[in-house]
Each structure stands twice: as structure tokens, then as C-alpha cells.
Write a structure and sequence with these properties.
Layout: E1 2-5, H1 10-23, E2 28-31, H2 45-59, E3 65-75, E4 83-92, E5 97-105, H3 109-116, H4 122-128, H5 142-147, H6 154-168
Parallel strand pairs: 1-2, 1-3
Antiparallel strand pairs: 3-4, 4-5
């Protein structure tokens, strides 16, 4: 079985591989550089899901399944900032699309403001807010790793979205 992953991000690749290997132990995973077709920092659930689906469709070539993750900031009523960061997963088999969502968490006020009001992508917003000097935190522990002081990493946080998408597949 060949499973193509709609990203070259090693954190996303590892999260997808870890979850899907339990169901497909002999699968070969192939990362692919594909476009999400949405903003570099999706806002809203619809745009976040569309980005994951677009990536999965774009990655589907010479494979059995294509899988993609997309993180976005979504409005959440009664939260402190009005938004939470979450990850969506899309799995495409060439005909059917299966989606799942992971857990969500609030970002610091200033980071949320920089993303929502100034349109910054999350990595530069985190840098500008003084939380990290790493220009690619999404390729490392992620902002969740910084905020949780390493107790939860981006890889940890991404795996549930993959698991939830697999539920829809009957896996």
C-alpha cells in the first residue's frame, strides 16, 4: 500500500505515519509538496477543512490513499480570544473524502491579534509576540510545544485529527 502525504513538513509526516501504521503496517509513506489552495494561515473551520481536502486531493497520484493535515484558527464562542487553533485531517481514496478534527487550544491574545487583525501566519506572529526566535516552529515542536513547555508537541497534537478521520473510514 502506498500512502501519499500532502506535505513535506516532517512533523506532519511523522504524525500521519505513526497513526496510520497501526492500521497499515506495511504501507509506504511518500511526502509530496502540494498547495493547500487556501491562505497560508487559514481562518475559520471551512477554510481549514478546505485546505486539508485540497492537499489530500492534490497529493493523490499513484497511491492507494492520500492524507493531509491543515491547521487553522477558528472562531470559538465564549473563549477568551474568540479563536482557537485546531488541526483538520483529510484522507482521500480517489473517490471518498474522510475528515477528522483534532483538539483545539487558545493562543495568547497578542498572537491571535496578529493573525486575525494583521493577517500574519502563525510562525511570524509567534516570533513577533516574543515567544520564539525559531522562524519555522511548525516544523519543530509547534506553538503548542512552546505554550505547554514541551509537554505537548505539534506531533502529539496532530495525531488525534488523523485518528478521527480514520474513524470515518471504519478503520
Amino acid at each position: 500500500m502506498i500512502i501519499r502525504i500532502g506535505s513535506l513538513n516532517p512533523v506532519k509526516v511523522a504524525a500521519i505515519r505513526e497513526v496510520m501504521t497501526t492500521r497499515f503496517p506495511d504501507a509506504r509513506f511518500t511526502p509530496a509538496n502540494v498547495d493547500s489552495g487556501v491562505s497560508v494561515q487559514p481562518l475559520g473551520l471551512a477554510e481549514t477543512l478546505r485546505g486539508a481536502k485540497n492537499r489530500a486531493r492534490a497529493a493523490f497520484a499513484d497511491c492507494d490513499l492520500a492524507v493531509a493535515l491543515e491547521s487553522g484558527l477558528v472562531p470559538v464562542p465564549e473563549s477568551r480570544t474568540g479563536y482557537m487553533n485546531l488541526t483538520a485531517c483529510a484522507i482521500f481514496d480517489g473517490q471518498e473524502m474522510y475528515v477528522g478534527l483534532g483538539p483545539a487550544f487558545e493562543l495568547p491574545d497578542e498572537v491571535t491579534r496578529l493573525v486575525v487583525e494583521e493577517g500574519l501566519e502563525l510562525d511570524p506572529a509567534v516570533q513577533r509576540a516574543g515567544l520564539s526566535d525559531n522562524a519555522r516552529i511548525g516544523y519543530a515542536q509547534g506553538v503548542i510545544g512552546i505554550l505547554s513547555r514541551g509537554r505537548v508537541t505539534r506531533r502529539d497534537y496532530s495525531r488525534p485529527a488523523v485518528s478521527m478521520a480514520m474513524v470515518c473510514m471504519g478503520m
